């Protein structure tokens, strides 16, 4: 809407860095790392209970214990991240296992994936959004083990989509032949969530 | 403030609703009400507003004359039953949007918004209780919408609000909360002040902790619905304590904000 509308007396604060940096529409820069979660932070004992699994439409489910997971080849990732609540953070540094590594040798005809997490959170994506060097399961942030409130021990990292897709406390990926909405996707948030196309909510 | 989304979690029961496009619309500012030294309520007339649930928020978009835009999210303070949509905004000293809303905007101005947004951190009287609402600072706003809704429909669901403010002067909605409590035997409001307190203050004067939650909240045997809203340390602390006390994580819903978290 708003053809010609402007807010009387509003100038805005354009930080120097924002002038030289391209941000997705409607986003603003933050220096800190805000925490947003819908419920209490889960704490699963790593040695005894934690595992990561690939299940669903696959030839054979895969499962890694914490020890096995840490032994997988890892990558360092530096990316900008964009939260649907409007903040963006530039050049965040992560370390984790590429989803490509986790799916190596998996036979599947699935086209969609549902990430599932401790606490019951889920988020859905087309499989092609998490393969080809676009997604990781990260266990370190800025050189330190990922803190529980930011999703530790591991969180999904899909930086090219809004950050709710980068599910905290992720425990596995369920491969699916059909798409189904995850937690926020059922509650009014966009099914795909591309920040550059400002896909925040249903119908965007 | 905002609903948890940076990659949220927790809670399983998502209720599918029919997609509806959220379009930007122009609201008119009918009144700006000072609440505390740092907060103002914006009373808005929104033509064709489709209604909301207590706990939801809206996105606000400001546009400068040269086309530069800034967006932020703000919780709705009014009950769905209220005639006008009310947002309560806290002025953040280093904010880009909130100082405009609290200091510049006045009656007669127009404001672009879209919503309502967020279906998880929301409560309707039919959801039942007992309710435990825990607020830090302006985190009380979406919880106030719940209490206003509860009063508007004369719900007798037992409700307790544990509300942490820095000082007596910074308690938002203090008089209205007193009125609500006076006319409703099943509502309790418990204040705690963390920085300064007036002479003769007999309630809590420390940060919310496990002991306080045990004293204030219903025992875990009662399946309560908890809504916690405030700065991250408060929310993390309270949610963890409630789980420790024995409450079911499924019924503990959180919403966090901070100077960079979305209040803007």
Word description of this protein:
- The complex is a heterodimer of chains A (204) and B (264).
- Chain A is mostly beta strands and 204 residues long.
- Chain A has a single domain, classed as Oxidoreductase, molybdopterin-binding domain (Sulfite Oxidase, Chain A, domain 2).
- In chain A, 8% of the residues lie in helices and 30% in strands.
- Chain A has helices spanning 16-20, 66-71, 99-103; strands at residues 28-29, 51-56, 62-65, 75-82, 87-98, 112-117, 122-126, 136-141, 144-145, 155-157, 170-176.
- In chain A, strands 1, 4, 5, 8, 9 and 10 form a 6-stranded mixed β-sheet that branches. Chain A has a 5-stranded mixed β-sheet with strand order 3-2-11-6-7.
- The longest helix of chain A has 6 residues, at 66-71.
- Chain A is globular and about 60 Å long.
- The model of chain A has no long low-confidence stretch (mean pLDDT 93).
- Chain B is of the alpha/beta class and 264 residues long.
- The termini of chain B are close together.
- The model of chain B is unreliable at 1-17 and 258-264 (pLDDT under 50).
- The chains are: A mainly beta (204), B alpha/beta (264).
- At the A-B interface, loops of A face strand 3, strand 4, strand 6, helix 5 and strand 11 of B.
Could you write a compact summary of the structure shown?
The complex is a heterodimer of chains A (204) and B (264). By secondary structure, chain A is mainly β. Helix content of chain A is 8%, strand content 30%.
Describe the global form of chain A: globular
Q: Which spans of chain A of ≥5 residues are poorly predicted at pLDDT below 50? A: none
Please give the count of helices of chain B.
5
Biggest interface, chains and residue tallies: A-B, 62 and 68 residues
Helix content of chain B: 10-25%
Which CATH first-tier class of chain A would you pick? Alpha Beta
Total E-strand runs of chain A: 11
The assigned CATH architecture of chain A is Alpha-Beta Complex
Mean pLDDT of chain B: 90
**Whole-number tally of structural domains of chain A:** 1
Radius of gyration of chain A: 18 Å
CATH topology value of chain A: Sulfite Oxidase, Chain A, domain 2
How large a portion of the residues of chain A is in β-strands, by DSSP E?
25-35%
**Whole-number average pLDDT of chain A?**
93
| End-to-end gap of chain A | 13 Å
CATH secondary-structure class of the largest domain in chain B: Alpha Beta
């Amino acid at each position: 809407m708003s053809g010609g509308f402007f807010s009387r007396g509003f100038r805005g604060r354009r930080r120097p860095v924002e002038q030289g940096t391209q941000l997705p529409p409607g986003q603003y820069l933050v220096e800190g790392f805000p925490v947003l979660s819908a419920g209490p932070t889960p704490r699963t004992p790593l040695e005894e209970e934690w595992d990561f699994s690939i299940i669903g439409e696959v030839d054979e489910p895969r499962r890694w214990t914490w020890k096995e997971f840490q032994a997988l080849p890892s990558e360092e990732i530096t990316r900008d991240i964009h939260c649907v609540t409007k903040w963006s953070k530039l050049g965040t540094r992560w370390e984790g296992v590429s989803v490509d590594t986790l799916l190596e040798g998996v036979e599947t005809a699935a086209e969609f994936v549902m990430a599932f997490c401790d606490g019951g959170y889920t988020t859905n994506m087309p499989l092609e959004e998490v393969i080809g060097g676009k997604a990781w399961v990260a266990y370190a942030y800025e050189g330190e083990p990922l803190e529980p409130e930011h999703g530790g021990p591991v969180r999904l990292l899909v930086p090219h989509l809004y950050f709710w897709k980068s599910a905290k406390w992720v425990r596995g990926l369920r491969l699916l032949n059909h798409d189904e909405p995850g937690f926020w996707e059922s509650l009014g948030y966009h099914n795909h969530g591309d920040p550059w196309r400002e896909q925040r909510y249903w119908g965007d | 403030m905002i609903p948890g989304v940076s990659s949220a979690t927790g809670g399983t029961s998502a209720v599918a609703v029919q997609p509806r496009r959220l379009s930007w619309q122009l609201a008119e500012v009918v009144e700006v009400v000072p609440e505390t030294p740092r907060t103002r309520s914006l009373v808005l007339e929104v033509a064709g507003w489709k209604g909301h649930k207590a706990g939801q928020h809206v996105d606000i978009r400001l546009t400068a004359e040269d086309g530069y835009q800034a967006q932020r999210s703000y919780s709705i303070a009014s009950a769905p039953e209220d005639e006008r949509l009310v947002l309560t905004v806290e002025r953040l000293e280093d904010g880009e949007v909130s100082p405009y809303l609290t200091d510049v905007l006045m009656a007669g101005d127009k404001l672009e918004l879209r919503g309502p947004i967020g279906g998880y951190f929301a409560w309707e009287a039919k959801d039942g209780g007992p309710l435990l609402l825990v607020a830090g600072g302006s985190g009380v706003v979406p919880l106030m919408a719940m209490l206003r809704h509860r009063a508007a429909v004369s719900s007798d669901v037992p409700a307790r609000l544990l509300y942490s403010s820095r000082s007596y002067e910074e308690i938002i909605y203090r008089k209205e909360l007193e009125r609500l409590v006076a006319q409703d035997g099943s509502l309790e409001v418990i204040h705690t002040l963390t920085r300064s307190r007036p002479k003769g203050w007999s309630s809590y004067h420390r940060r919310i902790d496990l002991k306080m939650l045990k004293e204030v909240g219903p025992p875990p045997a009662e399946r309560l619905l908890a809504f916690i809203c405030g700065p991250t340390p408060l929310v993390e602390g309270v949610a963890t304590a409630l789980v420790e006390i024995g409450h079911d994580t499924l019924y503990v819903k959180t919403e966090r904000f901070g100077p960079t978290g979305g209040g803007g």
